[in-house]
Amino acid sequence: MAVGGSETEAKRPVNVGGKDKSRTVKKIKRYWDESQTKESATDTPRTEEPRDDGEKSAEKRKRKPRERRQKRLGGRKQMSGKVDLFPGPASIPQQKIMKFERGEKTKLGQVSNRKLKGHLKTLETKVKLAKTQAARFDLLLPEEAGFLEGDEGEDTCTIQQEDIVDAVDITSGSKHFNLVLNQFGPYRLNYTRNGRYLLLGGRRGHVAAMDWHAKSLMCEMNVMESINDVKWLHTENMFAVAQKKWLYVYDNQGVELHCVKKFNDVLKMEFLPYHFLLATCSATGFLQYLDISVGKEIAAICTKAGRLDVMAQNPHNAIIHLGHPNGTVSLWSPNLKEPLVKMLCHKAAVRAVTVDNTGKYMITSGLDRKLKVYDVRMYRLLHSYVIPFGASHLSFSQKSLLAAGCGDTVQVYKDVHVKPARKPYMVHRVQQGVHGIQFCPYEDVLGIGHGEGFTSMLVPGAGEANFDALENNPFRSRKQRQEWEVKALLEKVQPDLITLEPGILGEVDFLTMEQKHKERVERLGFDPLAKEKFEPKHKKKGRSSTGQLLKRKKMVAEEEQRKLIRESVEEKLQQEKEKKKSEKMALLGQKSALDRFKK
Amino acid sequence: MKVKVLCRNPDDYVRETKKDIQRVPRNYDPTLHPFEVPREYTRALNAIKLERVFAKPFLASLDGHRDGVNCMAKHPKSLATILSGACDGEVKIWNLTKRQCTRTLQAHEGFVRGLCVRFCGTSFYTVGDDKTVKHWSMESPGSEEQEEPLHTILGKTVYTGIDHHWKDAVFATCGQQVDIWDEQRSSPMRSFTWGVDSICSVKFNPIETYLLGSCSSDRNIVLYDMRQATPLKKVILAMRSNTLCWNPMEAFIFTAANEDYNLYTFDMRFLDTPVMVHMDHVSAVLDVDYSPTGKEFVSASFDKSIRIFPADKGHSREVYHTKRMQHVISVKWSSDNRYILCGSDEMNIRIWKANASEKLGVLAPREKAALNYSQKLKEKFQHHPQIKRIARHRHLPRAIYSQAKEQRIMREARRRKEMNRRKHSKPGSVPLVPEKKKHIVAVVK
Question: Where are the compositionally biased (Basic and acidic residues) regions (chain A) (predicted)?
Answer without folding.
Answer: 8-23, 30-58, 571-584
